[in-house]
């Protein structure tokens, strides 16, 4: 059995009357990438801030690398690396100096510090940018530098708060590649994200979090399987009645009424079920205008468990929280 | 033992020397005060003072030398008072979060920033003294080498304590406020009375009683007076006043500045422990 690097029990946190985190418990195992997936304001950053000891724990308990975040905060800090949501670099120092500074404030001996900087600049392909001021790096390079810096002390766990927020898809995919490399090195990663595909692509396990509660936890495959093997999107002349008919059928696990279409979750093989299903609807005189077959995505999983889309009721668009320094 | 403050100090000094235009203009500024304000005022003042009867056996000190001490005090005041602004930028756009999330204690952060401020103040003080001597500021006149070294040590010690005091004050404000505009106006509010209700640029002997009392408590007066004690001697006339500095006077300067710095240190520790990122 692998050891738990993070153990959280009954964590609660309020800002005034607002409960940001509501009785959360979970564990993260050594070597895995564990994601908190949820909309902005779901309480993800609060959990990260508590685990990284930037915020005092109010209720419940949490251990990181075996140390209690409430009573052994220094030991916790020595065990972890953190990449904050907002860029946190000194733009007036070079890439190398930003890393050197980190090594110094974490009391790494000089020799070890210098060796590690070289290794990590190589890993993140920033070797030829070592003497560039951080402000002259592109947004993606800045993020890679922050990743490299977070790994300086070979942390037991690397915390990433929205690692690719505000980046274009090419940059994001590039960052994902580095994260996979980092995982190969054996680093445990705990990250928060509101990008479905990010959680899907990278994580060994995902917790969907909404309104401060964990709704469900599992691997991407497990979560998708719970929705059935396949999804069918149907457009009909009367979606309401069609939905009622479908709900009575045996292989149908669930039906969601979207704006113009029906989303039907199936328990079995779509190729065998579909003809029978279409026939049943037609028999009631309802016309089917469009059929679309799809494997369940994380979007579907999210909608299924939270009852709403990720963008819905989202008070803060990601563009608003984009870094100031990245704007040229 | 953790060397966390060393890292903070290293970072501050890298940036101090990196931006040459900022560095050079910050060093030229006090020299310009001395050259332009000093020269023009000293010509007028010295003309008037020549009319006064001199005190027998007591050396008279020209205005340039008198205000030289004040220029050091003023320059150190402004650089330390505005020194805290970097902390605000650090909080809003830079590394403060990274530093606060690290295992080093907040006292180390304050210590590192304080030491870097003292180093910068020493460089400024050194340049003003050297340039001043070149243009006729009579610091350490008639001193032996040993006396000069002791006097310089005294001046630098006072400058260090004073710098720490104002840097802590400015750091506490910076860490508590959100916007640089607010910081600018708060600091301007502080700096004007500090400068003008002091003996930095002119004697405070003829001030109205209330202002004279305030001037006595003003750290800037304590510093300027202390520098004069070390640089100009214990018995001289300047601007028509006869100054006799006693050990008690210099003791008051040291004690007053140290008390001020300690109060500001506790304010800084208090504000720093409250800061949330």
Give a topology summary.
The complex is a heterodimer of chains A (328) and B (277).
Chain A: E1 4-15, E2 18-29, E3 33-37, H1 44-51, E4 59-64, E5 67-68, H2 73-79, E6 80-83, H3 95-105, H4 110-123, H5 139-150, E7 157-161, H6 169-184, E8 188-193, H7 196-202, E9 205-210, E10 213-218, H8 220-225, E11 230-236, H9 239-247, E12 252-257, E13 262-266, H10 270-283, E14 288-294, H11 298-306
Parallel strand pairs in A: 3-8, 3-9, 6-7, 7-8
Antiparallel strand pairs in A: 1-2, 1-4, 4-5, 9-10, 11-13, 11-14, 12-13
Helix pairs in contact in A: 3-4, 3-5, 5-6
Chain B: H1 4-18, H2 20-49, H3 63-81, H4 85-93, H5 96-100, H6 106-134, H7 145-176, H8 180-196, H9 209-217, H10 219-232, E1 235-238, E2 241-244, H11 247-274
Antiparallel strand pairs in B: 1-2
Helix pairs in contact in B: 1-6, 2-3, 2-6, 3-6, 3-7, 3-10, 4-7, 6-7, 7-10, 7-11, 10-11
Task: Provide structural commentary.
The complex is a heterodimer of chains A (328) and B (277). Chain A is an alpha/beta fold and 328 residues long. Chain A has two domains: 4-223, P-loop containing nucleotide triphosphate hydrolases (Rossmann fold); 228-295, Alpha-Beta Plaits, CATH 3.30.70.100. Helices cover 34% and strands 27% of the residues of chain A. Chain A contains eleven helices and 14 strands. Chain A has helices at residues 44-51, 73-79, 95-105, 110-123, 139-150, 169-184, 196-202, 220-225, 239-247, 270-283, 298-306; strands at residues 4-15, 18-29, 33-37, 59-64, 67-68, 80-83, 157-161, 188-193, 205-210, 213-218, 230-236, 252-257, 262-266, 288-294. In chain A, strand 4 (59-64) and strand 5 (67-68) form a beta hairpin. In chain A, helix 5 (139-150) runs parallel beside helix 6. By secondary structure, chain B is mostly helical. Chain B has one domain. The longest helix of chain B is centred in the middle third of the chain and has 32 residues, at 145-176. The radius of gyration of chain B is 20 Å and the shape is elongated. Chain A binds chain B through residues 52-55, 74, 77-78, 82, 84, 86, 88-93, 97, 101-102, 104-107, 324-325, and chain B through 2-4, 6-8, 10-11, 14-15, 18-19, 93-95, 97-104, 276-277.
């Amino acid at each position: 059995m692998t050891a738990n690097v993070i153990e959280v029990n009954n964590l609660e946190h309020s800002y005034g009357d607002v409960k940001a985190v509501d009785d959360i418990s979970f564990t993260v195992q050594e070597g895995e990438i564990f994601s908190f997936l949820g909309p902005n304001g779901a309480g993800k950053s609060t959990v990260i801030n508590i685990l990284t000891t930037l915020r005092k724990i109010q209720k419940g308990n949490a251990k990181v690398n075996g140390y209690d975040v409430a009573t052994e905060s220094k030991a916790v800090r020595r065990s972890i690396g953190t990449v904050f949501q907002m860029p946190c670099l000194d733009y007036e120092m070079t890439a190398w100096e930003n890393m050197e500074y980190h090594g110094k404030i974490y009391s790494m001996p000089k020799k070890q510090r210098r060796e590690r900087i070289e290794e990590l600049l190589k890993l993140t392909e920033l070797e030829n940018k070592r003497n560039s001021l951080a402000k002259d790096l592109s947004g993606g390079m800045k993020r890679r530098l922050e990743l490299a810096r977070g790994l300086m002390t070979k942390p037991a766990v690397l915390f990433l708060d929205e690692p690719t927020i505000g980046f274009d898809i090419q940059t994001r995919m590039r960052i994902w590649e580095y994260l996979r490399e980092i995982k190969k090195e054996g680093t445990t990663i705990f990250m928060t994200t509101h990008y479905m595909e990010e959680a899907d692509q990278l994580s060994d396990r995902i917790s969907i979090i909404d309104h401060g509660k964990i709704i469900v936890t599992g691997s991407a495959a497990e979560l998708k399987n719970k929705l059935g093997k396949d999804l069918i999107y149907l457009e009909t002349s009367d979606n309401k009645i069609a939905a009622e008919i479908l709900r009575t059928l045996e292989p149908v696990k669930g039906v969601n009424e979207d704006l113009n279409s029906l989303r039907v979750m199936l328990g079995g093989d779509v190729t065998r079920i579909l003809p029978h299903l279409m026939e049943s609807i037609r028999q009631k005189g309802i016309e089917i205008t469009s059929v679309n077959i799809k494997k369940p995505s994380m979007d579907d999983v999210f909608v299924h468990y939270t009852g709403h889309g990720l963008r819905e009721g989202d008070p803060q668009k990601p563009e608003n929280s984009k870094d100031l320094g990245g704007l040229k | 033992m953790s060397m966390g403050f060393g890292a903070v100090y290293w970072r501050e000094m890298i940036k101090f020397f990196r931006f040459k235009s900022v560095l050079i203009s910050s060093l030229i500024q006090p020299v310009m005060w001395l050259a332009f304000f000093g020269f023009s005022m000293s010509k007028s003042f010295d003309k008037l003072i020549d009319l006064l009867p001199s005190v027998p056996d007591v050396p008279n000190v020209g205005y340039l030398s008198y205000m030289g001490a004040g220029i050091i005090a003023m320059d150190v005041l402004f650089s330390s008072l505005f020194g805290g602004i970097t902390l605000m930028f650090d909080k809003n756009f830079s590394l403060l979060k990274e530093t606060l999330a690290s295992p080093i204690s907040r006292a180390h952060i304050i210590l590192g920033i304080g030491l870097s401020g003292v180093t910068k103040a020493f460089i400024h003080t050194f340049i003003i003294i050297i340039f001043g001597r070149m243009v006729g500021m009579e610091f350490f006149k008639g001193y032996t080498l040993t006396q000069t070294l002791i006097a310089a040590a005294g001046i630098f010690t006072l400058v260090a304590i004073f710098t720490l005091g104002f840097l802590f004050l400015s750091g506490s404000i910076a860490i508590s406020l959100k916007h640089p505009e607010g910081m600018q106006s708060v600091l301007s509010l502080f700096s004007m009375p500090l400068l003008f209700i002091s003996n930095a640029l002119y004697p405070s002997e003829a001030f109205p009683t209330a202002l004279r009392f305030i001037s006595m408590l003003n750290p800037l007066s304590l510093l300027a007076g202390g520098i004069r004690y070390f640089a100009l001697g214990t018995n001289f006339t300047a601007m028509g006043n006869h100054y006799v500095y006693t050990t008690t006077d210099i003791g008051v300067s040291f004690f007053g500045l140290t008390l001020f710095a300690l109060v500001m240190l506790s304010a800084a520790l208090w504000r720093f422990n409250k800061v949330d990122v």
